[in-house]
TrEMBL record:
This is Imidazolonepropionase. Catalyzes the hydrolytic cleavage of the carbon-nitrogen bond in imidazolone-5-propanoate to yield N-formimidoyl-L-glutamate. It is the third step in the universal histidine degradation pathway. It comes from Halosolutus amylolyticus. One of its GO terms (molecular function) is zinc ion binding. InterPro entries: Amidohydro-rel, HutI, Metal-dep_hydrolase_composite, Metal_Hydrolase. Keywords: Cytoplasm, Histidine metabolism, Hydrolase, Iron, Metal-binding, Zinc. Its main location: cytoplasm. Pfam families: Amidohydro_1. The lineage of its organism: Archaea, Methanobacteriati, Methanobacteriota, Stenosarchaea group, Halobacteria. Zn(2+) binds at residues 74, 76, 243, 317.
Amino acid sequence: MTDLDAVVYGANELVVGPGDPLETIEDGAIAVIDGNVAAVGPTMDILREYPTENAAESIDATGRAVLPGFVDPHTHAVFAGDRSGEFAAKLRGKTYQEIMAEGGGILSTVHSVREADTEHLVANLLDHLDVMLAHGTTTAEVKSGYGLDTETELRMLEAIDRANEVHPIDVVPTFMGAHAVPDNAESTDEYVNCVVDEQIPAVAEQGIAEFCDVFCEEDVFSVDQSRVVLEAGAAAGLTPKVHAEEFTRLGGAQLAADLGAASADHLLHASGNDAEMLAEAGVTPVCLPGTAFSLGEDYADVDAFRSANAPVALATDFNPNCFSQSMQFAVALGCIGMRMTPAEATVAATVNAASAIDRNDGTGSLEAGAPGDLVIADVPSHVHVPYNFAVNNAETVIKGGRRVYD
Ligand code: NIG
Ligand code: FE
């Protein structure tokens, strides 16, 4: 008997973690003990110390790339209903905001989610988590925000918690009662009061959510309203996150910096100054190129973040308006759309993404001591993941040293 969970060896390239250049090992191997990385190194050294016959799982990764499991730090993966009709409308020229103003968009999903029982929400989420896992995601944040009333927001968080219990992906829960203003609210201020006075205390009492997020946007929540929500969330133990500068430059990035948020997300209209403020405040900028891609918007300006030395993260933003669960696709868009280098995009989708959800325990890297979460990709290097876009390059996925997909 042994406590050696897994040995993966012979990798053409093993990506250990960030660095300039990326820290990689040729003909690399990794040993996982008790769920965590015990050692990485050249195959000969690792196999001498950790013989495959002692391992519960041993995998020959010859010709393949081994990467840290992807971390997806921004999703709205729990929902119900079908908004494919909006997809066609958008292709005919309707804007996201027009659809929202007509009561579609987020509000249409809200109606479906309020009608769905919790069992159904869990089942839907599990299906999406399966797709994420198959594409190499081993940790994912999931937001509530399609309930917009206390009971349904709590049920969404319960669904996230139940899915986390049974699924190999580590699911990180975010409360987002301030995702939109429900159509039965008297005013935005009245709804903000409901979020602050009713929803946040109930969410804190339920004890599932870790973060509190707000859609800080023209015609949704102003900077002041967002601040009120995030400060109430923080007082209840929920770390702030902000949907910032997506369609307009309203000041959400500055708010995220002021509040020391974990992340500011979207940032399509963020300025160089915003990037510097985020970097100084230690707020992770999260770029969601899939959203820009699906809406036909310009991508976020990665040069601004580079100049500010801000550790950009990538996420899918998987939701009914951006229907892709694949971090490989986000990485490809990070490269092809935003002109990130494959090394930058790989770091953005792993260790920087982990920072955006406060997982600073080595998650997103394969250094000794990090969680034993990795992807064996059927390509020779990390460069080939975005280079060979729009297919699934993940062959085997390991979570905590256990083979969970192949
Ligand atoms: O991050 N921008 C706001 N929220 C989501 C979209 C949610 C939806 O359309 O259902 C986003 O893109
Ligand atoms: Fe979002």
